[in-house]
Amino acid sequence: MIRLSDKVIADPPVVLAPMAGITNVAFRRLCREHGATPGPTAGAMLYVSEMITSRALVERNQKTMRLVRFAPDERPRSLQLYGVDPAVVGAAVRMIVDDDLADHVDLNFGCPVPKVTRKGGGAALPWHMGLFADIVNSAVRAADGAVPVTVKMRLGIDREHLTYREAALRAQDAGVGYVALHGRTAADFYGGEADWAPIAELAELLDIPVLGNGDIWEADDALRMVRETGCAGVVIGRGCLGRPWLFADLAAAFDGRPDRRMPGLGEVGRTMYRHAELLADWLGEDHGVRDFRKHVAWYLKGFGVGGDLRAALASSSTLTELSDLLGKLDADQPFPADVLGRPRGRTTGHRAVALPEGWLAARDECAVPADAELPDSGG
Ligand SMILES: Cc1cc2nc3c(=O)[nH]c(=O)nc-3n(C[C@H](O)[C@H](O)[C@H](O)COP(=O)(O)O)c2cc1C
Asked: Model confidence over 328-357: pLDDT tens digits?
């Protein structure tokens, strides 16, 4: 169990990773529905929002305000913030507290996208440790104990420029509730295998909880990560794409139960419809069903579904059309066991990290990088 405040408790210690374009109010609700299985630790996991850009929040940008949407029964409300300017991040946290927008704020220092690192943001930022510490301190001060603040980061820029030890210690000094570590550098992007050894190292080094992240494809991988690293909890990203029932498996695994879900194609079709319906509730039918398209391949991975039907599902525009097409799936087809434990979602590998001129030479800069606050997807 991880207890960040009276309102923010993860028990079992499982967190849905913030994923831009994915972990919106609809997907979080779907995951909560699956995770809330009966049992001693029923459904009290944390489900974090997709990242919200601090400047856009402070400016009350309309699109951003729509992203800051929680279901009426969603508790705790976990919001991830991305920012590069201590004052703006502080103002965003103050706004979250004053307007009662969330119960928990997570800070994103893991984005590897070139557009962001090229400006000194995302996973490039902790290299400038002074600025990193200023941002985290500013957020914790602005929260003033009203909401817990946590930090999510990668190992560093690349193997020659690791930042996680010092950044984690600075975050702990600032008073964050936990540090979540993704066992990859920005250069690793999403390729290869996540390195869990640094997670074990941080778990040993810090007094606050350390959460491990990277390559948990099945519930048993989560138990293995806890066992092998001594981390206090786990963060689940790509493993739940097209598989929201993974949260039921995780609840079972942490309860010591052996049951794991292997839904047949009929049940997967019903889950797909539910997902699209929740997106339609949030965005309106047209936009919601279009947004659902990107999830189709993840849900159908490994199932025998003809190319035409797959393509039609991935281009449907209304709930009725989607429902008709889902009706054509072979409902009796069992879950394809060969996809278990296999990567899904982004798997692109090593790339050179784009950085601002002179970024690596000036380690302790506190200057705020200009324009690094692009609203972009990534961690
Ligand atoms: C589509 C996508 C969007 C992501 N967006 C964010 C984000 O907004 N904030 C963040 O901290 N990490 C983001 N991440 C990174 C994940 O939170 C997670 O750290 C990463 O996927 C590794 O975990 P996994 O191996 O369980 O997927 C994103 C990842 C993916 C695949």
From this structure: 999 999 999 999 999 998 888 888 899 998
Distances (CA, A) of 216 to 143, 190, 219, 299, 335: 31, 13, 7, 17, 19
In DSSP terms, 82 is beta-bridged to: 53
Confidence of residue 197 (pLDDT cuts 50, 70, 90): very high
Encoded tokens for 286? 């047209």
Residue showing tokens 């600075």? 170
Task: Confirm whether 111 is a catalytic residue.
Answer: yes
Closest CA to 205 of 252, 251, 172: 172
Task: Give the residue, out of 182, 199, 221, 235, with the most ligand 1 atoms within 8 A of its beta carbon, to mutate for a pocket test.
Answer: 182
Ligand 1 touching residue 19 (CB < 6 A) = yes
C-beta separation of 251 from 43 below 8 A? yes
Cα→Cα distances 327→214, 309, 311, 333, Å: 35, 11, 15, 13
Per-residue model confidence (pLDDT) at position 2: 94
Identify the bridge partners of residue 81 per DSSP, sorted by sequence position: 52, 107
Over the range 24-49, which residues count as b (16 or more CB within 10 Å of their CB) and which as e? bbbbbbbbbbbbebeeebebbbbbbb
> For the whole prediction, is pTM greater than 0.90?
yes
Q: Which of 31, 111, 231, 240 is catalytic?
A: 111
Please state, in angstroms and rounded to a whole number, the distance separating the CA atoms of residues 159 and 188. 9
Q: How far is CA 175 from CA 151, 155, 178, 309, 375, in A?
A: 10, 20, 9, 52, 27
Centroid of chain to Cα 283:
20
